[in-house]
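Reply to dn_fold:

You asked what the input looked like. This is it:
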Amino acid sequence: MIRILFKQALDEKSFREGRRITLNEVSEETGISRPTLTRISNVPGYNTNTDTISALCDYFEIEPGELLKKV
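and this is what came back:
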């Protein structure tokens, strides 16, 4: 199973910027719906598409290998 390390990436970005980042903010910046972000965050093994992965990588300024983990 491939796991999306969304919460960890969100925590890292929040720490770097010294502020709290909400799912609504991520949704507005990436164009990914709030329900999709909630599922990515809370459902282990949630299946999403490469466009979503790409948008999250761009937002967090990381590579896919930093966002995805095989477990």
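The chain has a mean pLDDT of 95.
Hope that clears it up.
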